[in-house]
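[step 3/7] fold_predict: job queued, chain A
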Amino acid sequence: MNVGVLSLQGGVIEHINHLKSLGCNAVEVKKISDLENIHGIILPGGESTVIGKLLKETNLLDPLKEKILRGFPVWGTCAGMILLAKEIENDENTYLSVMDIKVKRNAYGSQIDSFETEKVIEQVSPNPLPLIFIRAPYISSHSNDVKTICEIDGNMVAARQNNILATSFHPELSKNLEFHKYFLSMCNKSKE
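[step 4/7] structure written:
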């Protein structure tokens, strides 16, 4: 299976390494032609405004949005969650605008407020998963179509809406592969 990682800015290599360790062919997506022959895409953490700007400059924004709206599996981590959101608190701009969520940027504070915790997330694994938050957003509101996957202190930090997965945290920064396995299962189902 071929899974893309949007490779314009941010934590690209960590996702690629996790995909490769699961026997998946990881494809760096930098231009429109890279969207062909992949079965899903990961939008990594980084600077959402920079990635959003580069999506427009590379003309990837509209073709990627169209694919997602047609059911193409996508997973946004941290900044990737912001790119997927239909609304961003205190910001008129949106990017892909495909997921019925409103996100709060840097919801936990600045870099020094970054933290790690562990939690069992039933949909993903019966074992506690390491959750790494770095200048993380969270979902402040959502439509009924959006299913909660994980909450921390009453804040939604992982959610799914059909073919769209979003996490505030960074599974790629831990050695744990369960979230990547979960996303690959989404890609497999879509491929069938």
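[step 5/7] annotate
The helical segments are 12-21, 48-57, 61-69, 79-84, 178-191.
The domain at 2-191 is CATH 3.40.50.880 (Rossmann fold).
exit 0
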